[in-house]
Structures are given as C-alpha cells and as structure tokens.
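seq:
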Amino acid sequence: MKLTDFKVLTFDCYGTLIDWESGMVAELPPLTERLQPALTRNEILEAHGRIEAMQQLATPSKPYAELLAIVYKRLAEHWRLSASWQECLTYGRSIAEWPAFPDSVEALRYLKQHFALVILSNVDNESFAHSNARLGVAFDGVYTAQDIGSYKPALRNFEYMLADLGQRGFACRDILHVAESLFHDHVPANSLGLSSCWIHRRHGDDGFGATQPPANLPRLDFRFESLAALAAAHAAESGDG
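struct:
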C-alpha cells in the first residue's frame, strides 16, 4: 500500500489539524487555577475527555459549542467549583481561538495539489468556519456532527460521509482516513474497511489526553508524528520533492 494509491484524504480536524488540547488548556484557567492541589495538563485533559465523551452520548444532536458549555459546567462540578452559565458559554465559544498545529497550513497546501481533502469532525458548522480560516485551505467536503446528528465514534458519521463521497464517484478504496484519535476515528474507520493513517500528535505524551482509550487497538496502515511528515512521505514517494 502506498500513499499515491489514494484519491481522497478524509481528516479529523481537532487533535489532528487544530491543536484542541492546547486550546482547551488555554481556556480553562478560570477553573484550573482554583484547583488545590494543581492538576497536570494530562489530568485536566483526561477529565475533559471523559466528560465530553459522556455528554456526546447523552446529547448526540447538540451542536459542539453548546455541548462544550455543558462540559465546562460538569468539570466545575467534578472539581467542586462554582461556575456561572456565562462562563460556560464563553468556554463553548472558545473553539474559535484554538490554534492550528504549526505544520497544518503548509502541509494541507501541499496535499491539496494531490488529493481531494475532506473534513469529518465532531464540531458544529459555525465553529468549524473559524478553524477553517486558520487552516487556509478550501476543503472539498466538510461533514460535521451538526450535519449528521451524532458524534464520532458513531459509525453513522462515517457511513454518511462515505455515502456522499460515493455519490461523487469515490469508492472506499480511494479514501485514506487521517486522524490522531484512535477512539474517535481509527477504530470506526477500521470497522468499515477504510485505510488508516495515524498522525500521532501526542507521541511525546503519556496516555490519550482529551480522547478516550480505544476498546481495542485498530489496524494502522500508515503512522506519522506530524502532518508535515505525511506530506514529506508523499513527496518522496511521488518524486514531488
């Protein structure tokens, strides 16, 4: 299997293209600075990940910015802190401030020359519009949790995307799913026969951060520690260096 075998790259956005963990940690100090003893970055992210996954199961049709407001409320209660609803809403809107990874823009510009680029994300459309502006590329398809009415790792998110891409002439064998989260992305992608490329952004950290651990380890066809490394591997393979 080679990268040049594919016609479409389908991306998770948050954790893969946008540095959501840094974005979360930067916006949580109204809570985390009040904690005694202080929590580590990973402890904060793991608590966020557990509560977010629970809330996504409970309210699968709620737009992500609204869902994050509830996550903030649950975190405050979990840590035995008080938080106004206005604080919760402010956190939900903070997606617009989450930064892109330093290599995302340049790598996407390169990949756009060789593939159709598609987003499959657990986000609402308005929030993604802010992130898309940071990424600086016109995607060929954007499929959000708000469009579909459920959150990954639900199979229906992938099925919806594959059905629409199929109508545009792309078969499953044409598609490589590119993501960081084993839980949200690679396990369900495996179950539907999609090829997988792991962008292991957390290669220097322990644990799974803001994602949940997968129930089982998925098959991974490619593995890189950055999007830049994926782009470089394609350039070397295709002679487009």
